[in-house]
Specification:
The protein is of the alpha+beta class and 363 residues long. It has eleven helices and eight strands. Strands 1, 2, 3, 4, 5, 6, 7 and 8 form an eight-stranded mixed β-sheet that branches.
C-alpha cells in the first residue's frame, strides 16, 4: 500500500507539471521524470551556482572548465525537458560563462605568478645564506643569522692551539709569464677547486687565497673543537695538496711549498659593508715564515705542531730537523721540521680519524 501511494503521488506530480498529459500514451521513464525536476530551475539560479562553484578555493582553471561543461549540459537538459530553451538564454549563459572562465584564468595566472615570485625569493634567500655560510665559519654564520633584532654583534674571538697553513705555488710566476691571463685563471680555478674539496673533507676553513697562496685554519666551528685532531686533519690536507699538485708538476712545471704552525690567534670579521673573516697574531706570521722557509714538494712544520702530533698520534709521522726559523720583527725563533708519513705505522682496519681519539694536553 505504501508503494502504491508513492507511485500515485509521483504520477500526480508528473501530470501537474505538464510533462505528460492524461491522454499521453508515452511511458513515464525514470530519465524523463528526473529531467522534469529541472522545470523550476531558473537561468539566474544556474548562473549563481556556477559562479559560486567556479570561484571556490581549490578550484583550478581546468576544473572550472570541466565544471562549466557539466553545468551547461544540465542546463540544456533542464530547458529541453521543459521546452523552455531559447537563444537568449543560451547566449546569456555562454557569455556569462566565458566571462567567469576568463576571470578564473586571470586569477589562477596571478596566483601562479605570486607563487613563483615567493619561490624565487625563498631560493635567493637560501643561496644568500649558503654564500654567507661559505664566507664565514659556522659559529660566526649562525650567530649572524640568529641576530633577529639587528643589534651590533661581536665577531672577534681569541683561539688557542689553532693549526694554520700557508701554501704557495712554486713556478707560478714563470707560468703566468708564458700564458694568457685566461689560461692562468683557468689553471688556478682548476687547482683551487680541488683544494677546496679537500679542505671541506677535512673540516678546515679556507680564509682566503692571495694570488697563488692558499691560506686556511684547522677548524670551521669553534663550538666543537679537538686541537689534536685538527692538527692531524691539517697534515692530511697538506698531503692531499702535494698529491694534487703532483699532477701539474710535469705538464705545467708547478710545485708547492707548505708551512704549518700551531699557536694562538685572533679571528674575527673586519669591515662594515665589505666584510671578510681573517686571523691575526704573531703565530700567523710564524706560520707564514714556515712556508717561506720550506722546501718545494714538502711539508714544513713548527716544533709546536710537531709536539701536538706526537701527543695525539705518536708514531704516525716522521720528523726531520730542518733548522731554526726566525721572525726578526718579533725577535722570535722556532725550530722547523720536515714531515713525512710513517708507512709502517698504519695497521689494517685502523681509523685515522676515530671519534674516540682525544686531544692530550701537555703536562
Amino acid at each position: 500500500d505504501v508503494y502504491k501511494r508513492q507511485v500515485s503521488t509521483q504520477s500526480t506530480w508528473v501530470l501537474e507539471t505538464g510533462l505528460l498529459t492524461p491522454d499521453s500514451n508515452e511511458r513515464i521513464s525514470l530519465g524523463t521524470t528526473l529531467m522534469g525536476g529541472f522545470h523550476r530551475v531558473d537561468i539566474f539560479q544556474v548562473v549563481f551556482i556556477m559562479t559560486f562553484a567556479m570561484f571556490s578555493n581549490g578550484i583550478f582553471f581546468i576544473h572550472s572548465l570541466l565544471l562549466f561543461i557539466l553545468i551547461f549540459g544540465c542546463f540544456l537538459a533542464a530547458f529541453l525537458a521543459n521546452d523552455a530553451l531559447s537563444y537568449e538564454n543560451v547566449s546569456f549563459f555562454l557569455i556569462f560563462s566565458a566571462f567567469i572562465l576568463i576571470q578564473k584564468y586571470r586569477m589562477q595566472r596571478n596566483d601562479i605568478e605570486t607563487f613563483n615570485n615567493i619561490a624565487i625569493k625563498v631560493s635567493r634567500k637560501v643561496e644568500e645564506e649558503e654564500l654567507v655560510s661559505n664566507l664565514l665559519p659556522l659559529h660566526i654564520a649562525e650567530k649572524y643569522f640568529s641576530n633577529r633584532s639587528g643589534s651590533k654583534l661581536e665577531f672577534t674571538n681569541l683561539f688557542r692551539d689553532v693549526t694554520m697553513l700557508f701554501a704557495d705555488i712554486k713556478g707560478f710566476t714563470d707560468y703566468s709569464a708564458g700564458h694568457s691571463p685566461q689560461q692562468v685563471v683557468e689553471m688556478l680555478s682548476e687547482l683551487f677547486t680541488e683544494f677546496d674539496k679537500k679542505c671541506y673533507k677535512y673540516g678546515l676553513y679556507k680564509l682566503y687565497t692571495i694570488g697563488d697562496c692558499y691560506v686556511c685554519m684547522s677548524f670551521n666551528d669553534a663550538r666543537n673543537r679537538n686541537p689534536g685532531k685538527e692538527a692531524l686533519n691539517m697534515v692530511r690536507f697538506s698531503l692531499s695538496l702535494l698529491e694534487i699538485i703532483s699532477k701539474f708538476r710535469k705538464s705545467r712545471g708547478l710545485d708547492m711549498r707548505i708551512g704549518i704552525h700551531t699557536g694562538e690567534c685572533i679571528g674575527g670579521v673586519i669591515g662594515t659593508d665589505i666584510v671578510r673573516y681573517d686571523f691575526y697574531g704573531k703565530d700567523v706570521l710564524i706560520a707564514n715564515k714556515m712556508e717561506s722557509n720550506g722546501v718545494e714538494g714538502k711539508i714544513h712544520i713548527s716544533e709546536t705542531t710537531k709536539n701536538m702530533l706526537q701527543r695525539y698520534c705518536p708514531g704516525m709521522f716522521r720528523f726531520d730537523y730542518h733548522g731554526m726559523v726566525e721572525a726578526k720583527s718579533l725577535n722570535f725563533s722556532i725550530e722547523g721540521y720536515m714531515l713525512y708519513e710513517n708507512e709502517s705505522y698504519h695497521e689494517e682496519g685502523q681509523e685515522l680519524f676515530s671519534a674516540k681519539a682525544t686531544f692530550k694536553p701537555p703536562k
